[in-house]
Every structure is written in C-alpha cells, then in structure tokens.
Amino acid sequence: xxxxxxxxxxxxxxxxxxxxxxxxxxxxxxxxxxxxxxxxxxxxxxxxxxxxxxxxxxxxxxxxxxxxxxxxxxxxxxxxxxxxxxxxxxxxxxxxxxxxxxxxxxxxxxxxxxxxxxxxxxxxxxxxxx
Length: 130
Prior knowledge:
By secondary structure, this protein is of the alpha+beta class.
C-alpha cells in the first residue's frame, strides 16, 4: 500500500520504518565498517538527577550523541539536536540518538569480521595440513 510518503507507520501494534527496495535509490553496500565502529565510544553512565529527578540511579549503557554524529556523519536522524545547545531559559536542549539507525553499520562491521575470521581459518587449516 502507499503510505503517502510516510517513512514511519504503525501496523498490528508495532511501529515500522518503510524499508521497501522500491522506494529507495542510489543503494550501495556499506564498506570500511570496522574502521567506523572503531571510532565509536560505548560508555556506561548514570542520568543526572538534575535532568531526571525520578531516575532510579541504575547504570545505563549507550553512546554520547555528539560523538556518534562525528563517527557516523551524514546518516539521516541518527542523532537529533546540536551539541551544547540550550533553551531560551538556559536549560539543556539535550541531543538524542536513534539507536536502531546504528544497526546497519554494526551489521556491516560484523560481516567484515566474519570474512576476516573465515580467511584466517582457511589459512590455519592450510598451514596445519602442510
């Protein structure tokens, strides 16, 4: 069905992003994903009580939005907002992240690693057979 150009829609209780090949162009494979992933800085953190007084203090894992924007530039909506932005009242205008948009680069890096492992396994098998 035609969603009238909508990129996000809800069906059967789930929210999906349109991903049909027929609505995409200039499709290319992601390359050099390992080098991109190496620039990412996974962190563990707590949310400041000044930001969310009701936060339960449990450690979280994630990324810092401005660092991801630097590591993976030019990917639509992977991060939102501007680093160090403030609202008119001086409060933090926090950046956001769309973690799901990182899946393709992480998958590409895993595929590159699999290819490297398979090559090394074949070389080891050849050496053991000698």
